[in-house]
Amino acid sequence: MARVPESQRVRDALENAIVDGRYRPGERLDPSQLEQQFGCSRTPIREALQALERSGLVSIRPKQGTYVTELSLAELADRFEVMAELEGMAARLCARRIDRGQLEELHHALQECQLYEQKGDSDGYYYANAWFHGVIYDACGNEYLRQQAHSLRRVLQPYRRLQLRVPDRMRRSLAEHRVIAEAIETGETEAAENAGRDHVLVQVKEFSQLVRTWREVTAGNR
Amino acid sequence: MARVPESQRVRDALENAIVDGRYRPGERLDPSQLEQQFGCSRTPIREALQALERSGLVSIRPKQGTYVTELSLAELADRFEVMAELEGMAARLCARRIDRGQLEELHHALQECQLYEQKGDSDGYYYANAWFHGVIYDACGNEYLRQQAHSLRRVLQPYRRLQLRVPDRMRRSLAEHRVIAEAIETGETEAAENAGRDHVLVQVKEFSQLVRTWREVTAGNR
DNA sequence: TCCTCGATCAATGCATCCAATCAGTACTGT
DNA sequence: ACAGTACTGATTGGATGCATTGATCGAGGA
Description:
Arc Repressor Mutant, subunit A; three-stranded antiparallel sheet; homodimer; 74% helix; 2 domains; Four Helix Bundle (Hemerythrin (Met), subunit A)
């Protein structure tokens, strides 16, 4: 039987809530409210929050409480830059190491992406997209890279949500996926790396653009 | 005044002890002994150990105690592979973004490396080497990358110790540093990336070689 | 109006206690 | 000799009490 410590349950629940956007960046996590919500004492809550802080999802500001991490544009850009590198690296390794079955799974994931893109279903696309990238991480043959990539991806997830609003993003994302899959299949390491990296970098650009626009728009409101 | 929580003191002390090799991989960290040593109760010890586990320096095996992480060769290889990528990335960004003062510091660090190499002082070289790489991380203009690189470097540190035994390692390391610094100075991003990456990769190769040799040697002893 | 001082209270760190659990081991019967 | 079992002690997760700290905010003064 899976012995699941309370602290881990809390950790997972909060992590999912943050990644899924049920808690927004900057939102306060009230310890006593969490105690009630999870029906436990401070100890497991505390441990969960500490764990989340280490993974970067929440920030504990001493004597002021714990908040869902709110990344500045610069901090976000730094993380995306590293994410791009990990993504490129994974694709490159993948192109060299992927096996038959995994390649097949990659194609399935790609088809799934295509399916939701055609339907214009961005939620569905989100999951297909996560699957596609997950296959690449799995097949890169580097377990540590897989973990790191997943972890960083989760941290960035709350901010990716905004990107869905970028017009035409899904269609272009799909096209990029095709390029990546193609390069992996044909074993072109260099091409795979560049495609994987650019796939992330392009999002940074669009994201910064989005933020800039949003700022210009909201600037007039104050 | 910076009030330093006990748990953090314990954490730092243990982390340094592990990184410096005063605790060896696989060694047990006895909680009750640590309580005595640091003169505090279980709570801060526990938190410190949990933090160290998250950063990968120790492994908590449920009901069996906490041990300094002992990485298998495969796990080690994965980490070095990622480290190489981060190192290459940092060097590439550095070549693009380093400023006058930082470039000067890089040269100082390089000279320091040269100094200790000539003296054949591997401990001194270790610190000069850390400085050299630290400058690159600082100057890469990506704070997140800086943190990640430092953190991964610490995890790998206990294993690097072995490398000092590789004959001629210091001399070649220095030569590699020169190539990296040169590429950064002249702004050749591509060259810097490759030099940075290879500088780590070469160590993996030598390390695996070392382990293999060591295994062959010790295999006869049992 | 703005600044300073002090009171208040939430947040925090730590110690300690309790209970559940599991690894390892000694023991038992076949 | 061996398989299965019961026991024991170490380890751990969790709860709670207590003292300390520092953020916050209002009163009083410049």
